[in-house]
Specification:
Shape: globular
CATH class: Alpha Beta
Number of strands: 9
CATH architecture: 3-Layer(aba) Sandwich
Strand order of the largest sheet: 2-1-3-6-9
Order of helices and strands: EHHEHEHEEHEEEHEHH
Length: about 200
Amino acid sequence: MRVLVFGDSITYGAWDTEAGWVERIKREAHKQTVQSQGSNKLQIINLGIGGDSSTKILKRMPVEIEARYSASWPFVFVITFGANDERSIDGKIETPIEQFKTNVQAIIDLAKQHTDKILFIGIPPIGKSVVEFKGQEYSDERVQQYEQQMQAIVENAGLPFVPLRPVFEQAGLDTLYAYDNIHPNDKGHQLIADTIRPKLEELMK
């Protein structure tokens, strides 16, 4: 199978010194392929772009999918976004919540045209209640509001949703972030990988 992972800078891997949670899952997938002598082939393709919102992901998904289509490699989609949607610049929210809900549904509809194996990942909490970064404000309260809306739409569509907030809070937020209190550190990315890997394996059965 060919797993396309759509997301933002956390998906890309910022700021994990081992390249991020997607790369960690990819390494394990390659080990399985080698150990099975190629009978269990799995490609993990990281399509995370820093700064991406639901609007930007929706816009680029058709091209990304078309470029990676192969009849011999059935698609699996892993999709995660939201922190950049809720951020504000000069008091203006990047993606108003009603537009965000519309985008989530449109992304689901588009993904379902290509596969029924679709996994949505929740938004990691922000390291502090409010973080100012490069002139932008990230609010953990808004993150929760946006995630609640996304989860409701995803589950209403009959798709699996994996929240990250509970595992982050259980592990202790103070130990999981890089210098900016937005992106996970090595430990945080490993926690995401450990949380998602079994859900992805279950989806692909």
